[in-house]
Amino acid sequence: MDHFTLEGAGGILASLKSSKREPIDNPAGYLIAKYMNTGSRRNRNFLRGYRFDGDASQSLYEHAFSTPGFGGEFRRKVREEIPYYFGITAQGECLPRYDNYVALDPEKKDAWGIPVLHVHASYGENERSNDSSS
Fold first, then answer.
1. Does any domain span residue 132?
2. Distance between CA 20 and CA 81 in Å, rounded?
3. Cα separation of 32 and 27, whole Å?
4. Domain total for the chain?
5. What does the alpha-carbon distance between residue 3 and residue 61 come to, in Å, rounded to a whole number?
């Protein structure tokens, strides 16, 4: 089905202020590949794997809201002291479930008369568990 988000964190890297805005649309995402929930420290309440992903980017103008000052000096700080942001999110893998499936809708059709898909999907106990004990 998908991955569900467990927890995340992020922040501003204050020491990496730049007086030059980096080119827009340069990707800076990262992925720490999935690992399985196995071995002696296995959490038996969560049956699947985990993965971590995140990104790093330079603020466009959001930092202006937390920048103190006004007037010319304020504008200079917003233009020249451009912070970098980073974030990371932990995600858990969903288990396949018999209740999750895709079917052709018996009544609704698209512009060409083809039946549209009706997606039946929900999380199970594995995805709702908050217990991290083994």
1. no
2. 8
3. 16
4. 1
5. 31
Residue 35's domain comprises 3-97
pLDDT in tens, 13-22: 777 766 666 6
Per-residue pLDDT reduced to its tens digit, 76-111? 888 877 788 888 988 888 888 899 999 999 999 999
What are the E-state strand segments in 1-114? 3-18, 29-35, 50-58, 82-93, 101-109
Beta-carbon contacts of 103 under 8 Å, excluding residues fewer than 6 positions away, are: 117, 118, 120
pTM of the model: 0.55
Q: Is residue 29 part of a domain?
A: yes
Distance CA 49, CA 94 (A): 9
Amino acid in position 45 = N
| Site of tokens 């079917």 | 103
Q: State the Cα angle at 71 between 69 and 73, rounded to 5°.
A: 65
Whether residue 124 is contained in a domain is answered as no
Name which of 11, 1, 10, 2 is nearest 89 in CA terms. 10
Question: What does the block give as tokens for 78?
Answer: 């917003």
- Tokens 């990262």 label which residue? 30
Q: What is the C-alpha separation between 13 and 64, in angstroms, rounded? A: 15
- 53 belongs to a structural domain: yes
